[in-house]
Amino acid sequence: MDYQYPISHQWSTEETVDVINFFQSVERAYEKGITRNDLMQAYRRFKEIVPGKADEKNICNEFEEVSGYSAYQVVKKMRQAAPEEKIQF
Hints:
- This protein is mainly alpha-helical.
- The protein contains 4 helices and 2 strands; from the N terminus they run H-E-H-H-H-E.
- It has one domain: Annexin V, domain 1, CATH 1.10.220.80.
- 65% of the residues lie in helices and 4% in strands.
- Helix 1 packs antiparallel against helix 2.
């Protein structure tokens, strides 16, 4: 990994860790797969920290620019998946 995660100076340390955990979950979906439940848990926490759609889109687009991984596509696939299904690209 040769990039930095998009973070806000307004977030607490715990919130920053949780946002990074979500982006690492997106990475796992691309690299080796992640269970829908694990991804859902990380995404729900991410949405508590970044509740607005516009903010979510901006942060996820920043992440995609530096990593090449689309959080949008991962979340879209998660929403369509069965509860115990593994999300993988």
